[in-house]
Amino acid sequence: MLRFLTSGESHGKGLIAMVEGFPAGLDVDVEKINDELFKRQQGYGRGARQKIERDQAVVMSGVRHGTTTGAPISLVIENKDWENWLDVMSTTPIDLTDSAIAEKMAKKLIKHFRPGHADLAGTIKYGHDDIRDVLERASARETAARVAAGALCQQLLAAFGIKVSSHVIQVGSVKAELKEYDNLADLDADIADSELFCANQKSAEEMKEFIKKTWTEGDSLGGVIEVLADGLPVGLGSYTQWDRKLDGRLAQALMSIQAMKAVELGDGMTASGLKGSQVHDALYPSAGELPFKRVTNRAGGLEGGMTNGERLVARVFMKPIPTLLRGLDSVSYPDFKAHKADYERSDVCAIAAASVVARAMVAITLAGAFLDKFGGDSISDIRHSYENYRTKLRVGANARSDSD
Q: Would you identify the CATH topology of the domain 3-382?
């Protein structure tokens, strides 16, 4: 079973991602991991923090001479800003009788909850004295570790012809004009030069203007991300138990990203208002690699909790970032008196970065489902199992063709 964990705080020493259950024998390209980390730091509307950090992953274990060994893989991403937080985020006791240290602590003390964040519930749940104890871990800075793990999983999927892409399709109320892509490499090419990772440049400029206006108002924006995956075989996931359904696993993975509030698979929301004849994807015989074909993909590549051989289509909806420059009405802690929310350095719109995180979470989930289906201890074992499965499908197609 593939699983991953992250550790670290926003202004701590760094972030750690540990990936367990990863097979032996995959050649790892660390530059591809760092390229995804670089993309996560991009995007129009990002805050000043991105000018400080230059995220790079260091592989600490699980890889030898550039190849995975089957042992747990740990990746470390240093926080460059740590040097400015040595006392405030120290992991060892500090001397509060030192006036200089006490002054630093006072300046960084968070005393007023930020509505929309984990601040209130987290502080009460864990009994903290300082809201910062929640802020530091709940921060979206944690997603750098997810992106590193996701980039590793993208390389595993690519070894079996599976590609995962993502793009921004809406910022606030501004929706992009969409087009169909037969090849996801073409989509990647179209978003490569976009500051918002939006494939339609005209729409991207409208989004940027909206972000700029919102910025001057001291407000924030969210948006919508679409994640696509090609090359998926039929049968990843399962219908046999609730927690093995791939659509549920994908929804949980995407909803776990900071600020995400809804997930749509295929034509999910639109389909709820239509008749069945307008929603379900009819099947037809085929002489291709698979013995069947479809002419629509309204299900988004998922039926009954499993992949059905079509392109995976998932959309995730991001709320506006709750840290506002102008501050929302709130209360202080621990006395709960009326006050404006505290402001911690933040973004106005992080939708572009979130699209990279969403891609990572889908890649991690698909890699886990792929290993569940074709799992082995090494890439060669998995490849043997995968090719046997594909051969059975081809044999079925040929048998049908011969009987026609």
A: Chorismate synthase, AroC fold (3.60.150)
